Each structure stands twice: as C-alpha cells, then as structure tokens.
Amino acid sequence: SALQIPTIDTARYSHLFNLHFKYNRPFLCVGPTGTGKSFYIQNNMMRLPEEKFAPSFVTFTVQITANQTQELILSKLIKRRKGIFGPPRGLKCVLFIDDINMPLKEVYGAQPPIELIRQYFDKKHWYDSKDITKIHLEDILVVAACGLVGGSRQDIYARFLCHFNIFAINLFSDETNFRIFQSLLLDIYKRNGHAAD
C-alpha cells in the first residue's frame, strides 16, 4: 500500500488543494514523472467529507476518444432528470483527470477529449452522441494532472489551460528525499520487529 511521508511539500500541496476543493476552483498539477502529483491529489480527494463530495477518477490514454471520455464521465454521474446529469443531490463531484495531456492530436492539431472538457468549462453542456440533444452537467469540479511535454505527452493549448489554476510540482530536494527514505526504512525495520535504535 502507498504511504505518504509528511514533508513541507505535502503540507503545502494539501493546503492548496483543499482550498480549491472548498471554493470550487479547478486546478492542474504539472511536473516530472515520479513527483507524486496523482498520489497527492487522490490522497486529498479520498479525505474529503463524504456528505459533501463524490470523488471520481479518470485517466487519459494516448488512444482515448471524445466519445469514450463522455461515456466514461457520464457513467460516474447520475441522471437527475431528462438531459441533466450530476452527482447525487447535495454533493459536488470532484472529477480528477490524470495524464490529461496524453490524447493524441488529430490532423488539425486538436485533442478531441480535451475539447470535450473545454466545452464543459465554456458551455456547461455536451451533446448526446445518439440523438444530439443537450446534456447539461451540474455540480462538477474538474482537477487534473499531467507530466511534462515529451514522449506521448502533448502540449495543451492556452484556451484550455486558462480554466485552471496551475501548480508546478518539482522534484524533491535532497533533504526531502533523505526524510522520505529514512521514514520508509524506519517503517520497514519496525514492521520486521527491530528496535527503533
């Protein structure tokens, strides 16, 4: 099981994330692989009060389409009434999209799954792929994480990014790495019956 070692960074990020959850503000974490972006966000989401929040998780892949994205997100919501989807009444759905910059660009440079999320931000609705009726989305907070551009990761255009508060998650300092390593080592020793000294 994953273990979060408290550091100055985890305290900072947790505080910032919780303010965003509280005030319903979308945010995006950007940083190199292995800095714990997804882990920090998921950890904080799972600690949100159940009577106020409904956490949901989606991971984008290179091959994901806009239709798959729409179906996946709608499957995590309930139909409140005709044409209106959201979490159960009285709850806010916190939708965490991991690897948001993964979808391939099509011939004109757009990333259809990202266009779909941007349409939610701009219009608060999508269209049913079968009969083209409007699907209104309510009480959703989108938060996301992405790695640095390169390999399969694409750059995301500013028209989409402007909807988020963006945080850079940096590699750990030597001091933080030492603290994490020390805590893990002590935990392993303790679980195997060694004395603290």
Task: Please outline what is shown here.
With 197 residues, the chain is α/β, with parallel strands linked by helices. The protein has helices spanning 8-22, 37-46, 66-75, 112-123, 158-161, 174-191; strands at 27-30, 53-59, 78-81, 84-86, 92-98, 125-127, 134-137, 140-146, 165-168.
Fold blueprint:
Blueprint: H1 8-22, E1 27-30, H2 37-46, E2 53-59, H3 66-75, E3 78-81, E4 84-86, E5 92-98, H4 112-123, E6 125-127, E7 134-137, E8 140-146, H5 158-161, E9 165-168, H6 174-191
Parallel strand pairs: 1-8, 1-9, 2-5, 4-7, 5-8
Antiparallel strand pairs: 3-4, 6-7
Task: Report on this structure.
The protein is α/β, with parallel strands linked by helices. Helices cover 35% and strands 22% of the residues. The strands form two sheets. The protein has a five-stranded parallel beta sheet, with helices on one face. A four-stranded mixed beta sheet has the order 3-4-7-6. A hairpin with a 6-residue loop joins β6 and β7 (134-137). α3 packs across α4 (112-123). The chain is globular, with a radius of gyration of 19 Å. 24% of the residues are buried. The model has no long low-confidence stretch (mean pLDDT 90).
**Helices and strands: which structural class?**
alpha/beta
Please provide the ordered H/E string of secondary-structure elements: HEHEHEEEHEEEHEH
Mean pLDDT: 90
Query: Segments where pLDDT lies below 50 for 5+ residues?
Result: none
Please tell me what the overall shape is.
globular
Strand order of the largest sheet: 2-5-8-1-9
What is the CA-atom radius of gyration, in angstroms? 19 Å
**DSSP helix fraction:** 25-40%
How many strand segments?
9
> Which range does the strand content fall in?
15-25%
